[in-house]
């Protein structure tokens, strides 16, 4: 991986064979990013995407190999209970299926391996956002600093 910081925004190039989530988390460790918005594109060789199955309170993984265009990566960085960077990202990939037809896969990012190059933009928030367990949702959610709660139900 290679990165540069311009006006507070990190521009990350992920090299062939490298893991996108691993590169993002490593940059955030090195640069002490406590919260950030992430976007990206790239040419990938493998992607493992997860779909949340609410009835089971668990993810189902889907892995696609071959020439994949990462047409959209979006997500955020927060800090987990141990203070480590936590990546929550979703992505959309286009590829050719077994019959040679265009296909898409999208969902929660588990892992992405770069096939040619990945271009990721990380915009730090300037503060840290943590994560906390939410009993109603059954998952970890943002623990927002200086928050205001409004019940819209």
TrEMBL record:
<feature type="domain" description="PPC">
    <location>
        <begin position="4"/>
        <end position="145"/>
    </location>
</feature>
<dbReference type="InterPro" id="IPR005175">
    <property type="entry name" value="PPC_dom"/>
</dbReference>
<dbReference type="Pfam" id="PF03479">
    <property type="entry name" value="PCC"/>
</dbReference>
<protein>
    <recommendedName>
        <fullName>PPC domain-containing protein</fullName>
    </recommendedName>
</protein>
